[in-house]
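#help-structures
NK: newbie question, is this the right format to request a structure? protein is Glucose 1-dehydrogenase
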Amino acid sequence: MGLLDGKVALITGGARGMGEAHVRLFREEGAEVVFGDVLDEEGKALAEETGATYVHHDVTDPDEWARAVGTAVSLHGRLNILVNNAGILKFRRIADMEPEEFDRVIEVNLKGTWLGVKSVIEPMKAAGRGSIVNISSIEGFVGAEGLSAYAASKFAVRGVTKSAARELAPFKIRVNSVHPGAINTSMAMNPDMMGEVDAEAFVRAMVIKRFAKPVEVSHVVAFLASDRASYCTGGEFTVDGGLTTGAGY
């Protein structure tokens, strides 16, 4: 039996990177998966390969949220899980960053997450229970140079998670956040950022001295989505190889 047998999941930002890993693992663990992204070519190819359903989904648009949620419910009769994974990163020092760039990061990473929580409340109430997993970051605990907008958005996701956990507990809807560290994805390897980072110092600060595979995050996400995490809500789960232990990061 799979960890997520009988569950219906909606995953945002699922066409590549960590989102792709979530889609693949959730399918392996028995879930019916609807996933969204703005990368249509990659999304359609992943759907064909995995048997998941792809929908074009801009997480900043309430109408597209309604369409994505409606697709899951119409295809599978219910919605049990939301993984708010979609996010963007813009490396820019505060002095050099345009307000429009800041707004865009906040809109996708924070507003997109908030809209996701709001959009699944009624279908999860109808299903009798649910699990929401919000993907934050270690930058939601420790700010980093050049990542003011990203860190602001990810700190804020923690607040949304804790408020939602309190509001939704009466409906048996659990809400938790996951905080990845150094994950081997194209976003984490952003050329602008990597050109500014002291890679050797970064690795020295790691307790587990390597970048993680995306699926190593997915295993934690799948656990929180499952009934095995039935007493976890409002929690913050780091998947960072010890980066936030205070050992130099």
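mod (FA): yep, format's fine, and the tokens are attached above. The CA atoms of residues 131 and 174 lie 5 Å apart.
NK: thank you!
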